[in-house]
Amino acid sequence: MLGRCQCLCLAALSAPALLVASHNLVQNFSAPPGPSRCPPVPPTSPLNASAHPPGAPAWERGHHQPRAFDVTIITEWDLVCERGPLPALAQTLFMAGVLLGAFIFGTLSDRVGRRWVLLSSLLIVGAGGTGAALAPDFTTYCVCRTLSGIGLAGFLINYIGLSLEWVPRGARAGVVTWLSYCSTAGQLVLAGLAYSMRDWRHLQLAISVPFLAFLLSAWWVPESARWLLVQGRTKEALRNLQRVAHVNGRTAAGEGLSLEVLVQEGSYSSTGRSTGSWLGLFLSPALRRISCCLMCVSFSTNLAYFGLSMDLGSFGLNVFLVQLCFGAVDLGAKAACALALSRCGRRPVQALSLSVAGACLLASTPLPAEMLMVRLALVVLGKGFLAAASVCSYLYGGELFPTVVRQTGTGLMTVVARLGGMVAPLVLVGGQYHSVLPPLVFGVTPVLAGAAACFLPEMWDVPLMDTIEQVEERARRKGPEPVVEVVCVSHIIRSTRI
User: Fold this and answer.
1) Exposed (0-12), middle (13-18) or buried (19+): which is 495, by Cβ within 10 Å?
2) Residues 13, 15, 16, CA angle at the centre, nearest 5°?
3) pLDDT 10s digits, 149-178
4) For 336-375, what is each residue's pLDDT tens digit?
5) Which domains does the chain have, with CATH numbers?
6) 374 within 8 A of 125, measured Cβ to Cβ
């Protein structure tokens, strides 16, 4: 059961989480896929002069596009013919921004704390998205989208980590699932906003300006007491814990906490302080195995997930309807995932969801064009299992990494995940030459990642670990018994319901 303070923190983080998916997928509507034909001869040629009078665009749009696509970055900046690959480049640069942001903010969060990185990330996302909406040219648009991706990475890394470090073990799966539901709701909201707004600039503003307002609600979110204790900042940890206890209606329990006990706790954990480097994730055997397996899971999940999300137009149907189906299937998939995580554990859910997703996508590959709806059903089902795998990986990664390198590890997973997102458009481009390539790649990689997930340790009903030594100790035991949680933190969690 969550206390009032935890519920308020989740509410403050849920609002920006609602628009996370919008920033990932907005270019599906700002630059919708779909067919534009270039003339076989230059528009200045005498043979083509009547078809393309002076001043007319040297291309012809597909007639099946909905009217909501009348104003896009493609039509505004003529990104067709030889400039046709530029929309994919813009999406790749956004993914590169997320990659760069994860590289920067991952280690920075373990050095300076989760809260300040979270606040600065919200500011960067709001500023970058607003700048993209007001961009006078395509180059400026790409720069602002890259900046928005950098800020988005900082938010993605920290809002999950802060939530995990402030809630008891029994509520971790439910909290992460709730936050992932906010992202799913964002997909549905994006489809509605894109349908109602005829100009891509208005759509970009609608999902960017709110991030500037989210700074106000996130300002009072407390720094992780667990991180403060590991860093030896016991006075700040004591203030935060007493504040949480007061908000939760347990003021007496908070006042009963003593600095002496927290000092003892800080001295216990200080031996495991982070070096602030990704290298620390590969120096110890158990942590190295965790890092390598999670890298496979993150890369494969995002490669297939974003590949499917960017290929809405391949079904020849209304992209609004396809986007709505993709968002709706996530609702059921994530609910089933939350139930399975609380009943079956993390490892089997992670491995099974990836394997079934890959199998569904591979099964859709040989289907002929006449079986479009069957293929669509298999792809939608596969995306649902990928959504479940994504929820599990967010929770699983946050639980497997100890506090001293939790955000560094999460940052590494985000970098690898966005590498998958960057490769996805390239796979789709390859599909123009070999149509079987995208579904084959998007199907095989999740199956391989599901096999890699089988080598991860189980974290079901296991307390969060604070130091690398605790991770190694649990690996040496090779048993299901959990590591004994630090006494002080366990007492604080029980007494203040955090």
Assistant:
1) middle
2) 75
3) 999 989 988 888 888 888 888 788 888 888
4) 888 898 888 899 999 999 999 999 999 988 877 778 788 8
5) 4-33+83-225+273-453 (1.20.1250.20), 226-272+463-496 (no CATH)
6) no
